[in-house]
Specification:
The complex is a heterodimer of chains A (about 80) and B (about 240). By secondary structure, chain A is α/β, with parallel strands linked by helices. Chain A has a single domain, classed as Histidine-containing Protein, Chain: A, CATH 3.30.1340. In chain A, the strands form two sheets. In chain A, strands 1-2-4 form a three-stranded mixed sheet, covered by helices on one side. The radius of gyration of chain A is 16 Å and the shape is elongated. Chain B has one domain: 4-Layer Sandwich (Purple Acid Phosphatase, chain A, domain 2), CATH 3.60.21.10. In chain B, the strands form three sheets. Chain B has a six-stranded mixed sheet. A five-stranded mixed sheet of chain B has the order 4-3-2-1-13. Strand 6 of chain A pairs parallel with strand 13 of chain B.
C-alpha cells in the first residue's frame, strides 16, 4: 500500500512554505487519486509558477492542477467611515 | 464621501514584494495623497525577508507624498534580517514600529500609532498558556510581553487619535475563513485585551490571507484585517471622524 495522500499533501504544503523559491503559506493542497490540486491566491504569475514547480518536485508522480488565482489589486476602492 | 474633518487612513498588509514585483506596487499608489492622510503597512512586506527584498520594499515606498507607518510580519523575520530591513525602510522615510509608538501629524491632527509585529498563541478559552515545556512558555510569554509593551505605549502616546498597527490578529472575527485549527498561529487575544485596557480608535492587522476584513474587540474597538488578499485592492481607506464630530 502506498503512502496515504494526506501525508503527501502535508509534505507538499510544507515544501511550499519552506522552499526558498516560494515561502508561501496558506496554499490549499488536495490530492484525489493521482491528481494534485493547488488552490489559493498570490500577487504574481511568477509566484504561481514557482509554487507549481515546487509542488511537482515534491510529488512528481502526481498530475498537477495549478488552480492558484492571481490577485489583481489595482484600484483603491471605496472608503469606510468609522463613526 | 469623506469630509474635511475626517482623518483618512490608508492601509494594506501582506504585499509580499519579490524581485518580479519591482515598481508594480508603486504604480498603484499614484494619487494616494488625494485619498488619504497617512498610509499604514501591516507587515509581510517581503516574501523571504531578505535584504534585497527589504531594499525593494523601501524603494516602493520611498518619499511618498504622505506619511508612511509600517510594522514587519513573520515573512520579514524569516532571514533574521528584520533589523536591517527596518533600517532600509527608515532610510526611505518610513516610520517602522517595533512595540513602540509614533505620532504622525495629519492636517493639524496628531495621530498616535502604536504597534509591532504581534504574535500568536490563540484566543480566550482555546489558547496556549505559560505552562509546561519551556518552548510553549516562551511562545506565550513572547506574546504577553508584546501586549504589555503595546499597553504601555498606548498610555504614553499623546495624540488626538490612537490606532494600533499589527501583523498578527488580536481577534478571531477577522480570521473567519481561515481553518480553525490554525487560529493559534494567526493571533492572540492578549493583544486585544491590552488595547481594550488602554483604549484606541482602530486596530489594523494582516497575516490572515483567507480571513475577513471586519471585526471588533470584546471592548468594542473596530478591527480591520487589511491583508491584500482580504481587501482585494491596493489599499483600504478608513476615515476617523475628528474629535467629537
Amino acid at each position: 500500500m502506498g503512502e496515504a495522500p494526506q501525508y503527501v499533501a502535508a509534505r507538499v504544503q510544507q515544501a511550499l512554505a519552506e522552499d526558498a523559491r516560494t515561502n508561501e503559506l496558506g496554499i490549499r493542497v488536495d490530492i484525489r487519486g493521482d491528481q494534485l490540486f493547488l488552490r489559493g491566491q498570490v500577487s504574481e504569475p511568477g509566484q504561481r509558477d514557482r509554487l507549481g514547480e515546487v509542488a511537482h518536485e515534491t510529488a512528481p508522480a502526481l498530475h498537477l492542477h495549478n488552480e492558484i488565482r492571481i490577485l489583481d489589486a489595482s484600484a483603491p476602492g471605496e472608503d469606510e467611515h468609522l463613526d | 464621501m469623506s469630509t474635511l474633518t475626517d482623518l483618512r487612513i490608508a492601509a494594506v498588509g501582506d504585499i509580499h514584494l519579490g524581485e518580479d514585483a519591482r515598481g508594480h506596487y508603486r504604480k498603484r499608489l499614484e494619487g494616494i495623497e488625494e485619498r488619504a492622510d497617512v498610509l499604514m503597512l501591516a507587515g509581510d512586506l517581503t516574501r523571504h525577508g531578505t535584504l534585497a527584498e527589504g531594499r525593494l520594499v523601501a524603494d516602493e515606498f520611498r518619499d511618498l507624498p504622505l506619511p508612511v507607518v509600517a510594522v514587519l510580519g513573520n515573512h520579514d523575520y524569516h532571514s533574521d534580517l528584520q533589523h536591517e530591513i527596518a533600517g532600509e525602510l527608515r532610510d526611505a522615510g518610513v516610520t517602522v514600529l517595533d512595540d513602540d509608538w509614533a505620532v504622525v501629524e495629519c492636517g493639524g491632527t496628531k495621530l498616535g500609532v502604536v504597534g509591532g509585529k504581534g504574535f500568536g498563541g490563540g484566543f480566550a478559552g482555546k489558547c496556549a498558556s505559560e505552562f509546561g515545556e519551556r518552548e510553549i512558555k516562551d511562545l506565550v510569554r513572547h506574546t504577553r510581553l508584546i501586549a504589555e509593551a503595546w499597553q504601555v505605549a498606548l498610555k504614553e502616546v499623546q495624540a488626538d487619535h490612537r490606532v494600533v498597527l499589527s501583523h498578527y490578529s488580536p481577534v478571531k472575527e477577522t480570521l473567519e475563513g481561515e481553518p480553525l485549527e490554525i487560529y493559534p498561529f494567526l493571533g492572540s487575544y492578549l493583544l486585544a485585551e491590552a488595547v481594550d485596557t488602554a483604549g484606541a480608535d482602530l486596530i489594523l492587522h494582516g497575516h490572515a490571507h483567507k480571513g475577513s476584513e471586519k471585526g471588533m474587540t470584546p471592548g468594542g474597538i473596530r478591527v480591520r484585517n487589511v491583508a491584500l488578499p482580504v481587501i482585494g485592492r491596493a489599499y483600504a481607506v478608513y476615515c476617523l471622524a475628528m474629535n467629537g464630530e
